User: Fold these one by one.
Assistant:
Number 1:
Amino acid sequence: MTSANVTNGSKPYIVEDRPMISRSSGDRVKITHTIEPGKEETGCLTCFYSPPEYPILAKCPCFDYPEYIVNEIKASQYINIRENSIEYNQPTLQPAKSDTPLTTVFCCGHSPTILTVRDRISTIYFDDVLMDSIRNDTRSCNPLHTFCCGGRGEELRLESRFCWDACYRGQSIGSEHCGVLNSCCCCVPCVPVGCPECLCPCAARKTIFVEDAETAVKIIAKARDDARIRLQVMER
């Protein structure tokens, strides 16, 4: 570690090899904006919360997950625009740890009745290839679709395309999403735009669910451009 990288109170933290990692203060990260995350809706058929003791009822059309876990999920969501990056949490849920020897044996260490939040926090710096394009990718008639079938809010898309916008850039080496494939071969370097994300997780694209996608696009694009100018970072 060079002296330029040692944090020292309120002095600037400078990383010469990658300027976008730098920040104005060595002991803190400045948050410039917050964006309201999208609210998950279950659709018009869902009328009840499942009883806390029976979360399995959420698999039925008329029941949502227990109210306590729904509230925990909502409380865990955030989208912070920082001086050099965007950080967001799109949490999911999972069974809590088992609390008795019996459930440990028969439920593989999980509780059969209690749910807990599992955070999925991502940080994307403004010089990342994903920041090439920031756009509103909300589906058409989103309020109607959400009322009938549920939804997670409006969709903000971060992506990097080439070849007249017909292909996404791929991740050719070392993708953490490719599992066994990553140990024996490289991932595809490009992905056609029409290919579903579930089939091609290596494509350079991310979806963030927000309350107001148009406003979020303007805020993130301005923060990205300001950071690149301030730190004199050229597009990759």
Note: The longest strand covers residues 110-118.
Number 2:
Amino acid sequence: MDIYGHRLATCSSDRSVRIFEVDKNQHRLIATLIGHDGPVWQISWMHPMYGNALASCSYDKKVILWKESDRGQWAKFYTHEVHASSVNSIQWAPPDTGLYLACGSSDGTISILQGSGDDKFSFLMIQNAHTTGVNAVSWAPSHPSGTTLDPSTKDYDVISKRFASGGGDNLVKVWKFSDEKNAWEMEAELKGHNNWVRDVAWLQTLASLPVPSPAAAKTAKSSSGNVKISTKLTGYQEDDAYI
């Protein structure tokens, strides 16, 4: 669902992406996007401040970016083809973080697309992110919990460029961007699962909370049937919480 709750995008093993217009109890198909050569695993809406667009990833090793024109027609405007195997998971970063798209692949790498305007993108790669493939990615909030969104405060411009990934190596890893090195570096490695980590989800905290709560929390879903919850205060601590 888009940020306004008016558009619903779906993807399928039939290699298509479909977009529905939602109006109260009415759902109307408005576009069918054809461009992938294999099952489409995941889709992610771009924040509207950057345009009316979405991304899709597929078994065909591609990530395709789609955009709606002023006339309501959808078309692909960028194809990302750098992975050697299925691209399993994609997610756009929070808008304040910037126009970033994280892409996790079965080839064990993660590519991070960065938009620079005029539909142009560059990318950085994290090699050997997970030895047996990347199954999921999830961005951290752009501002740590407790940040006051007031331009007059010194923490207003503190932006977090951080995301988590889960892989077939049973691990969850946290990655942070280094401005000094212009590279993504591993900040933490979280262990505890005894089978593939299928999904990770970062808690979307409220930046304007007056009292700091844990700065980040992720849930990681595993093939073992357990869900582990990790929190970040001064470091990462795994809670022995299983759901």
Note: Residues 207-217 have pLDDT under 50 and may be disordered.
Number 3:
Amino acid sequence: MMFAKILCVLYVNMSGYDTLYQDVDVVYYRNPLEFFSEYGSGSQNYDIIFQHDGSSQPRYAPYSSNSGFFYTRSNKKVQYLLTSLLYHGDLIRKTRTHQQVLNQLLLEHSSLFGLKVKTLDRHDYNQFPGGYHFNYDHSTMHQIISGELKPYIFHMFFTDGKETKVKFLKQFGEWYVHEECTEKLIGNANNLPASSQCCSATPLISCYYKDKPSAVPCNDSPSHDKNGEPFWKQ
């Protein structure tokens, strides 16, 4: 799976197409391609653009790039970067993450080969918020839930494990898959289209933690974090 993540971007890029890659824990509110194709955003000046990871750990320095949401221009510099990342598969396997290896290669390729790298501002919550804001910026999350703020996407990174991410998305009001379809292969479902059998037209909201953002008050639920304050103040 880790190698497929690299190859799917590399092959499309080598075919002459700019590429937007995303993990499956991303919610769309607006078309992000509009941002990356807009000259006023300044994004045209870069070869590769990443969402900020939210972490300031030294192993991700200096870019703190998130490998779960990024945009690439189709050019030789990007293709060389992705090929180098593929050749460092042993390190990816050892560290069990793309990000640590990728961030080191970004530093090398920007210095040696002139690769132009941009990481979107972590504090520019109007455009590309994510798990960092979910956990630490409840003011922004209230604005998204109320509809006051409409970013391009929301990315549930900065969260450990698939099970926790699913719980957070359900509570956030951004989960639309019926329970009976979450753990089965589509090929094992009935002959009905997956959209009619598995997908809900309205969000399937569940409460799990009172101290995490939720589409409805979850104050009767336990806290996720030690000494966590309720998201909805009474």
Note: The first helix runs from residue 2 to 14.
Number 4:
Amino acid sequence: MSKMRLQFRNGFKKHEPQVFEIITFPKFGIGQRAFLIQTQEGNILWDCISFLDDATVEIIKSLGGLRAIAISHPHYYSTNSRWSEAFGGVPVYIHEWDKKWVVYQHENVKFWEGKTFQLWEGLTLLHLGGHFAGAQILHWSHGAQGRGVLFTGDILQVGMDNKTVSIMRSYPNYIPLSSSHAKRIGQVIEPWDFERLYGAFQDREIEENAKSCVVFSLQRYIDWLSLDDAAA
């Protein structure tokens, strides 16, 4: 980490009131990003980038510090213990079904079970599965001027048009999920309202009508998987 500090830095971008993107420059790993979400009950870090330096800690503390960390899936677990310790040992929330992927199960990791888990008022983790068995996303009811926001990592991968999403078991190996997975994901998100969706990578967000975009994308996915080749 000390050698990385000579070459890398983290940049912050404010997307809307109380939402800051954090991303490492130059590109590190797969170029993923984290989000700092400010709430009246405390701040949460959604997903975890690998690089952490003193400047990043100072900036986050100036914005109110952290009450908790929540991580979508194992590709973001790498330095979660370092992040937790830097902010006083805050809890790191991970779904129980991905416990086997947590190499360092430090005392601040909090595994949860079930379909939903309310962190505190307005912030709820939703278990989607698919990309990983324990894959989770974060719903923030107060975001987008009270119309709701989803933070999804690449569990729901925002397309290049910023109007659709994709779901995959493995992106580098092009292994899709089944139509039954797509239907179940749709059932999980159906009760939750959200106007906006932030994905895993820079500039990959759906600014408006995000729920309609997700519903359309999942149905399109199901339809194509069900289509007979002769009818294509």
Note: The mean pLDDT is 94.
